[in-house]
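Appendix C reproduces, verbatim, an entry submitted by the partner laboratory led by Prof. M.T., so that reviewers can inspect both the input and the predicted structure.
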Amino acid sequence: MSNIQSIEIKNEILERIVRAFFSEDFEEKSRLIPYDMRPKGAEVPYRCCVYKERAILKERVKAGLGFALETEEAESKLLSTYAKEALDRQVPDKDPLTVLDSACVGCVPSRIYVTDLCQGCVARPCQNACKFGAISIVDGRSKIDGSKCKNCKMCMKACPYNAIVKLAVPCEDACPVGAINKNENNITRIDFDTCITCGKCVASCPFGAIHEKSQLVDVMKYIKNPNTKLVAMIAPSIAGQFDGSIYQIKTALKKAGFDEVIEVAQGADITTLNEAKEFEERMEEGASFMTTSCCAGYNNLTATALKEIQDYKSSTGTPLFYTAQIAREKYPDYIRVFISPCVAKRKEVQYNDNVDYLLNYSEISALLNGQDIVVSECEEEKFDVESSKQGRNYGVSGGVAQAVTTVLKDKTLARPYIINGLNKDSIKELKKFAKEGKCPDCNLIEVMACEGGCIGGNAVIAEQRIAKKQIQKTLDTSIDITRKD
């Protein structure tokens, strides 16, 4: 099953949860979701039988209702009971991710492996390339000692027959900080003390075994309650996710139940101005470089596995930080919901008293589809405060550095460098910058956890190529940011 298919299943489940919620019997409709998706006699596309298929769908529904899947009681409890508990829940679970054991296939351990293509070269290029003495010759073929191998891949590069390959576990391979491991049953587990919630494991698993615990029901409870009002704070990258303008998205969200909508690009403009001033001050004081601070995945990384770079990271607040302040001042009695492209922001939301909940783009798409709201058919409604084109471009890799450079008093002061996606190599590079106290040929480093920027987040619903084109349409009609001091 490809990632696209697993994502489609998750999205279908979220939409069915929305339709169930706005029906006359949420609990019973929730219980029936696996049976409605795989009725008796229907084709079983992925598993051995319809019963296995339903069992896994049941687990996915639980995650969609906001629950962990690792608990022992998970198998015996009815979905209708989970639906009721979701309605009664006061606070969402702390850890944002959960693993569906029955979907995890228990991949073989990741390692460098010598295949049958090995020709037993006289030159022994692989053995000579290994600096750790991990390769020996057994029965005329190369053999790797896993206890000595450092996964440097030098033997792979040296082999003239491409006989040495890496056996990868997608979630482990994607995790930049080694937070993914296996339990005694060879099933994936997440070390949340190490995890930076970048969401790469969610996006990489071809079986869709890693889920976000959705807060969709928590938010819909307030939408359905006539005594509460909600304000949606939409991340800049949302402009590339739907077939319609940013102003049509605003109208669609209001039709879906939000009373007000604010662009987080408005907060991005504040971040731009503050970060530019901080950069100028640091350069004047003799600092060698400064990194940006808007990406939650990167901020989580610097708090755990990359503490040595904290002194070089900007202290400026994220766009969400400033937008949430605006929302609280303007709408003090509203429920404040951040609309996000990724799971990384869930940690930031947990520690920000000005934000109550987070919904990702998949959940917003389900909320709209579940109420038959089509963005492209909505009227346009302008924002009270128009954000700049620079703020609206924050969701594209390079957009933050470009915005900061735009408002510098001396445009030649900045020499930007873009970290386009966090991985093991880019983290090593950042560690090197911190250790040496310099970044060759650069002094302003933009760091984005996802390749492509926020439009590459784990919960986006549009391809990057399409998202960029859609965002560009918004930028073409947007104003430039100005600095008044």
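Residues 67 and 78 are 13 Å apart (CA to CA). Additional entries are available on request from the coordinating office.
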